[in-house]
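Researcher: Here's a chain I'd like modeled. Treat it as a single chain, no partners, no ligands.
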Amino acid sequence: MENYFTRLLISSELDDPLYFARVHQNIADLEKKRVAHFNEYGPINQKYIVLMGELNMAYYRAGETQKELEIAQQIYQTSQLLHGEEDEATVEAMIALGTSYLDNGLSTEAQSIVENLLSRDFTKEDGPSYDLYIDLLCLQADIYYKRKQFDEELLIRQQVLTILTSFQGSTSSQSIMARCALGVCLEKRYAWREALEQYRIIRSYLDIETDFASEAEKIGLLVHIARCYRKLGEVEDAKTLYRWAHRKAHVYFGPASPLALKMQRILKAAEQNKRSYHS
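Model: Modeled as a single isolated chain. Structure tokens:
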């Protein structure tokens, strides 16, 4: 399951010089490890796949989707060679490939992978794990999200959350991530009160699990909560939350940071009670 908290961000984390530097240094370090491992052991082994998986995620965080996709294709092909088409590791690689296709704007290719895998029997004792079935459902929902088919997305988000809460509880880490995806979908459907219910649970969780989300993601969550309050006509509560978010952006990222400057514009519009801010 991807990090749905990134959908709460109101400014790209890559605009932060420190974050940008960390991401690209991580890519450089992983590329060195990959080359060294390739030269000593070659590419057809599980450790190489693990390294490539880390590199795939690093390129995703850097927004370099073509590189991300190229690596996902290599991981899938290597998994096929090592484990065969039906093995759980290959299924996991296929789902990751579908995600990388989607990140690269290729939703048709991603949908083809989903349809292929959904035709398989996940209930067999020796079949892929149920966790992979959840990941597959999330990928289908992500495709609907990219295609702006929010009614179809909503049904799957609700199904995923129901399954996760049944097996893991309402505030497991996966359930919280699923709630975030559901909350964003509800906002897209203008269901402000229902979205707010999900965001309140998430915020309570983050008050306890303080390292689960980045500071930029926590600020984004405050802004989305404020937006829901504003849309529900609770303007003063919304203004208070915008002020908190602005203060946090100022403290954690500095007054001249893109996030702090954007929060300053949002707060100014909120104070002036304009209807068009953070639409």
